[in-house]
Design goal:
Blueprint (H helix, E strand, L loop, with lengths): L1 H6 L8 H17 L1 E5 L2 E14 L2 E2 L13 E4 L2 E5 L14 E2 L6 E11 L4 E4 L1 H8 L15 E4 L8 E4 L7 H15 E2 L6 H9 L4 E4 L1 H14 L11
Parallel strand pairs: 6-11
Antiparallel strand pairs: 1-2, 1-9, 2-3, 2-7, 2-12, 4-5, 5-7, 7-8, 10-12
Length: about 240
């Protein structure tokens, strides 16, 4: 899949300009070429945030992870679709990065999804996570229950914009977060100023937000050629 290949493009030597181009390219694809399917139901991307960290692009708010590209990664803030990611553990501790070694990790946080069958917007990372990963059969393998990214039958033309990411931190919270990350998560010669930390969170345009009405308009056009199939799922 072309999207999975793009999720593997970034590495420890990637530079900011190339990283931003990859973000923009993938956002365009997620809004217009792909959706998530689970149990025959379709979910379209509405709000996504990009996170990536290497020595050239020290976005240290990014959760460290060691995963291949195109994996679902659960963390305390929600769920990411991963970039190809790896790092060396300092003292063998998970989540503690030895910055003397090469590293590159990150993913795309899913903040909002549009459920096609109901036109409902799932607003918030955890609401998206709970909807997609609500329950699974404990005894019988059921691949349809696993959320899977699927190529649209026909490309959409969704209107979207970029903005800074959504963080509810006060200035004191931001300072405490910065201190905790630089003291407890990253070790070695990775020097990140507070101004850079603040810029990644509150200034750089790393969030992409689609217009709900634009998505609905595109889906309405799509349904003229491809009728919507609504499947009722009994979880009892």
């Amino acid at each position: 899949m072309e999207l999975k290949r793009k999720l593997a493009q970034l590495c420890s030597s990637s530079i900011p300009g190339d990283i931003q181009k990859v973000f923009t390219d993938i956002a365009e694809d997620l809004f217009n070429k792909y959706h998530i399917e689970k149990n025959g139901l379709e979910y379209y991307f509405v709000d996504i945030e990009f996170y990536f960290c290497n020595k050239n692009y020290p976005d240290i708010i990014t959760y460290p992870r060691e995963l291949g590209e195109g994996r679902w990664f659960f963390h305390q803030s929600g769920i990411d679709l991963t970039f190809q990611s790896s790092y060396t553990r300092q003292y063998g501790k998970e989540g503690v990065v030895d910055a003397t070694c090469d590293f590159a990790f990150g993913g795309i946080l899913i903040r909002k999804l549009l459920k096609r069958s109901t036109r409902q917007v799932l607003d918030g990372p955890h609401k998206c996570e709970w909807e997609l990963f609500d329950s699974f059969d404990a005894f019988t393998e059921a691949p349809r229950e696993i959320p899977t990214i699927v190529r649209n039958v026909k490309d959409l033309s969704v209107t979207y914009s970029s903005s800074s990411r959504s963080f509810p931190y006060s200035d004191k919270d931001m300072e405490r977060k910065y201190d905790a990350l630089t003291r407890n998560t990253f070790h070695g010669p990775l020097l990140v100023s507070y101004d850079d930390f603040y810029r990644f969170i509150n200034k750089d345009k790393l969030a992409y937000i689609a217009d709900k009405e634009s998505i609905l308009k595109c889906l309405k056009i799509l349904e003229r050629a491809i009728p919507l199939r609504v499947e009722v799922i009994d979880y009892d």
